[in-house]
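ESCALATION

Customer reports they have been waiting on this structure for their group meeting. Please prioritize. Original submission:
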Amino acid sequence: MIPFYKYQGAGNDFILFDHLQGPVLQDTSVENIARLCDRRFGIGADGLMLLEPHPDYDFYMRYYNSDGRLSSMCGNGGRCIAAFAKRLGYVQEETHFLAVDGPHRARITADNWVELEMLDVATVEEVLDGYFLDTGSPHFVQWRSEIASVDVDNEGRILREHDQFAPGGSNINFVCGSANQVEIATYERGVEAETLACGTGVTAAAIVAVVRSGERGDFTVPVQAKGGQLEVKLSYDGNIFKHIWLCGPADFVFSGDWTT
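Update from on-call: job pushed to the front of the queue and completed.
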């Protein structure tokens, strides 16, 4: 019997295991992770995380996509694992942890509103008919007049494997609006389908919205994902995006025991 926890951030959902006191999930094979994340034969989730010890940080965040493979950074996952660590009493209102892309700070309020500091972004490249950037994970952002009619799964699947993004492919975001209010739909690699929200994608969309505005300074960009409202705080000097904070809810859903 292996205890697990389920969290979601704006509909982006995750299975979490506490490994700070020692590993409980012994089988981390691609096949077993994918089985746990399967929505018909497992617990069901967009991804799975292990809360692991680290000598220099509060914890290490190990993240797997629902296909069972280790992945690049997950922004909503980072917010959820911070809330998870607080729920278990390992951290209080603030934490400093390490993820695959580097160190992150997070602030957690009493109502599980979590603000996660992302890494600086120096390059936003215009490619194809959109923008490509890395916010901890690679993202292609394509601006549309509206996204309600976009076939996210089919169009996203085609773009995800485009030669422009070889060899690893890219997450694909369809976005409309402006820096005053962004609306987004995301096709996530590793999930290989649309998800209700994607934290690194929301961050990428906010950055591109600021680039398109032609303005500089400090911004708070509201972003409406299909699973809920988030916001991105950032500063832009015309060259580098700094002080990027991904903000939104990170909610405990349920806990249980997985029988191997």
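Sent to customer with the following note: The chain has a mean pLDDT of 97.
Escalation resolved.
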